[in-house]
Write a structure and sequence with these properties.
- This protein has a single domain, classed as Nucleotidyltransferase, domain 5, CATH 3.30.420.
- The termini are far apart.
- The longest helix has 18 residues.
- With about 130 residues, it is an alpha+beta fold.
- It contains 4 helices and 6 strands; from the N terminus they run E-E-E-H-E-H-H-E-E-H.
- Helix 1 packs parallel to helix 3.
């Protein structure tokens, strides 16, 4: 199966996020794109000893906060982490992971999905955007 990246709809931005884990150390990264496929913003962070799911969750949080701080209010999120997206959407609550991720996500937990497949997508509502600002 070929997976291809698609830009967000006109007037929206897309935040792709990911985390990495090596030698007990975790890192985060995100990239924000416009509807023409141009990179608007990117960021990364070393977060020390953490799990990959925490790293991906912090990457999502960092990407969303950076977008909100710039006044972007129509955001599509995309990741290869179905677990993090499902926890974010309140579709999953695995023991041991959920409590940490719920603390990270806080007010975002009612996000509605656009689709869920190999790439997980969701859109923020205006109420969630207000809670972030």
């Amino acid at each position: 199966m070929m997976i291809k990246w698609h830009p967000p709809p006109t007037g929206w931005i897309k935040v792709n996020f990911d985390g990495s884990f090596m030698n007990s150390q975790a890192s985060t990264s995100f990239v924000s794109w416009d509807c023409n496929g141009h990179v608007l913003l990117a960021g990364s962070n070393n977060i020390g000893e953490n799990s990959i799911n925490v790293a991906k969750s912090v990457a999502l949080w960092d990407g969303l906060v950076a977008a909100i701080e710039r006044g972007w209010d129509q955001i599509v999120i995309e990741s290869d982490s179905k677990l993090v997206i499902d926890i974010f959407l309140k579709k999953a609550s695995p023991p041991g992971v959920s409590n940490i991720l719920f603390k990270i996500f806080g007010p975002f937990l009612s996000l509605s999905p656009l689709s869920v497949s190999n790439m997980c997508l969701g859109r923020l509502t205006s109420q969630q955007m207000r809670l972030l600002s």
